[in-house]
């Protein structure tokens, strides 16, 4: 299982609506609207890196209001 935090920038005034839609997507475990440089932080789980990329590009980035994403993949140290 691969986990990643996705930092999301939204178009003005769209963070709440985008977060609500995102929370219903398969593999999205948590979604929070936040303050600071980004508008939303989401925790996403996938079975592998390929399916993670598909979820980000094929689902999260297509949510209305989403502008830019930054992906931080969780690693074991």
Task: Describe the model.
This protein is an alpha+beta fold. It contains 2 helices and 4 strands; from the N terminus they run E-H-E-E-H-E. Strands 2-3-1-4 form a 4-stranded antiparallel β-sheet.
Q: How many individual β-strands?
A: 4
Instruction: Return the structural class.
Output: alpha+beta
Low-confidence stretches: none
Q: Please, what is the average pLDDT?
A: 96
Distance between the termini: 16 Å
> What is the string of SSEs from the N terminus onward?
EHEEHE
Strand content range: 35-45%
Shape: globular
> What is the number of helices?
2
Radius of gyration: 12 Å
Q: Main sheet, how many strands, which sense, barrel? A: 4 strands, antiparallel
- Helix % is 10-25%
Strand ordering within the main sheet: 2-3-1-4
Oligomeric state of the chains in view: single chain
Topology:
Elements: E1 2-10, H1 15-22, E2 28-33, E3 40-46, H2 49-58, E4 66-73
Antiparallel strand pairs: 1-3, 1-4, 2-3
Q: Short summary of the structure?
A:
The chain is α+β, with helices and mostly antiparallel strands. Helices cover 23% and strands 39% of the residues. It has a four-stranded antiparallel β-sheet with strand order 2-3-1-4.
How would you describe this structure in keywords?
about 80 residues, alpha+beta, four-stranded antiparallel β-sheet, 2 helices, about 25% helix, globular
């Amino acid at each position: 299982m691969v986990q990643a935090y996705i930092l999301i920038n939204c178009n003005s005034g769209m963070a709440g609506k985008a977060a609500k839609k995102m929370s219903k997507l398969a593999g999205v475990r948590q979604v929070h609207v936040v303050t600071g440089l980004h508008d939303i932080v989401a925790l996403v789980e996938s079975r592998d890196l390929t399916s993670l990329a598909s979820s980000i590009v094929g689902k999260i980035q297509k949510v209305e209001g989403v502008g830019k994403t930054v992906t931080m993949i969780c690693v074991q140290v």
